[in-house]
Design brief:
alpha+beta, three-stranded antiparallel β-sheet, 17 helices
Amino acid sequence: DALLTVMVITGPLRITLGQGVPAQVTLIATGSPTSFSAVNLPAGLTLSNAGLISGSPRTLGTTQVNVTASNAEGSGTTVVTIIVITPIEAFVTRFYEQCLNRAPDANGLSSWSSALASGTQSGVDVARGFILSPEFGARNLSDSDFLKVVYRAFFDRDPDTAGQTTWQAQLSAKVLREDVLYGFILSQEFSTLCQRYGITAIDTESQNAYNVRQFVRRFYQQCLSREPDAQGIVDWTNKLIQGSLLGVDVARGFVLSQEFRQRTLTDQAYLTILYKAFFNRNPDAGGNATWLNEMAAGKSRQVVLDGFIFSAEFSALCAQYGIIPFATGG
């Protein structure tokens, strides 16, 4: 009987919050408690009978809070430590806790926080820095567990069934985790989370880098009919950003590659891919017929390729992604 009358709060026993940042943390206890109460709760926070700590803490510092869980059988009291730090530090801390499953080290917390405070990095840099880190990779999470972590870190919630199913299907189809990650980074939910902490979700430089990556990814999809390999897309993307390659180089690199040639496409299939890859549309009847007739008359596929590359439509497509299509003049 004694076991029925003593309740134990099992978690979380250490809670890190941002000063002035709206928070909601649900306490968990054994014994099916019907009410919770607290002594010494930081100003700005309240505790509901259901065990929900909510509000915006007002004062920086560490507080030991005596929390009691009760029901008709009895009660139990546990000390819960609530740490209130600056919003930026709290933002960084949540990534240590959610992604790396540990408290931040002092140097790491200081470095990330300073970069965010100075504006030299944005939320996307923190997100990528943690999720793409060797330490996170060493956790060797399954796709399902990976998604659960990303939902908690980026959306501050557990996955919804529809979302989990959709992302799981993409990962099963060999979409890189980094590309799935961007789906979370560019979402309104992540932007809203960043706003809570006074953080810019994504800066212009990061947005431009994403656009370039998507330009490269579409060539893998349209020309090679597959998702990119991790190293390949990084190499192409970095060279485009650095300016050592232009749109024409990517176009030729994919269409003239051994992997593309091994597809042994018919002239019609070849044209359809060029239209989709370079113009982002299906062939129009007139243009399609003209190209087919010219190839039948002996025009090489490489010459046809250049016709697409140096077109106004391809230049317009490149402009959408911030890509220079080809060198002009000289």
